[in-house]
Design goal:
Elements lengths: L13 H20 L9 H22 L5 H28 L10 H7 L12 H14 L2 H4 L4 H33 L2 H16 L12 E8 L2 E8 L8 E3 L5
Antiparallel strand pairs: 1-2, 2-3
Helix pairs in contact: 1-2, 1-5, 1-7, 2-3, 3-7
Length: 247
């Protein structure tokens, strides 16, 4: 398989595919059903299309921060989820204004939408071309509802797709938190690189507990400064050595 810039990793995410489907369907919904009478100032159109765009774009921007800032990546993913939650509220309000409630999850229509799964993304030598073609294929799976002339059918389908996308984003955030806990953020990784480099310069011993290089640390006792070897993995590892034992 061809290599790809890690900042374009969003193309492998089901959340990006689903958020894109939601975005394009929302554009169609607003153009088709938000008439001048229903939306005289165009404010609802702007709010809904901007929320749909924000959902997808923040997934893309978060992916671009994968290698530089895990914290920013998590925040952008959370913004994407919040934008889609706002959009879901708009579709819910649309149905309520018609005197309707969303499809029950056990209804035949709801079960039919939930039963459709996305295909696994498999890209070859052109990730932009292949990912866009993949996206359009997945979108067609939902055409039965999203291309309907009944606004309420479209709104109900989009509520389900939004719910699924938000669940995907929740799992992404959990995964990002796990990675942050295990690897730290970009700043923490830079700090560790500097610490490791300093340890090499002073011919530091290796920690017998975790294998990380040790570094010279200082402590004050009885108004005297004492030096000792401390593990650079602190606070996860608290191993120490007397400097005299390594000289």
């Amino acid at each position: 398989m061809a290599t790809i810039d890690t900042t374009a990793g969003f193309r492998r995410l089901d959340s990006w595919v689903m958020a894109s489907i939601v975005q394009f369907a929302t554009y169609r919904f607003c153009r088709k059903f938000l008439t001048r009478q229903l939306d005289p100032t165009g404010r609802q159109y702007d709010q809904m299309t901007q929320a749909a765009r924000s959902g997808k774009v923040n997934i893309v921007e978060g992916s671009a921060r994968t290698t530089t800032s895990k914290e920013t990546e998590m925040k952008l993913t959370d913004v994407a989820k919040a934008s889609l939650a706002e959009l879901a509220s708009d579709y819910e309000d649309w149905l309520l204004q018609q005197g309707l409630v969303p499809w029950h999850k056990t209804s035949e229509e709801a079960k039919a939408v939930f039963a459709i799964w996305l295909d696994k993304a498999v890209y070859q030598d052109d990730w932009v071309h292949d990912s866009c073609a993949h996206l359009l294929r997945q979108q067609k799976k939902f055409d039965r509802w999203l291309q309907s002339d009944d606004a309420n059918v479209v709104a109900n389908c989009l509520l389900i797709l939004l719910r699924r996308t938000m669940l995907m984003l929740s799992e992404q955030i959990r995964q990002q938190v796990r990675e942050f806990e295990n690897e730290g953020g970009f700043r923490e990784q830079l700090t560790q690189i500097r610490v490791d480099a300093r340890a090499k310069k002073v011919n530091a011993p290796v920690c017998s507990n975790c294998g990380k290089p040790m570094t010279i640390r200082k402590t004050n006792k009885n108004n005297e400064t004492h030096e000792f070897w401390g593990c650079t993995g602190y606070p996860a590892c608290t191993k120490t050595l007397k400097i005299s034992t390594t000289s």
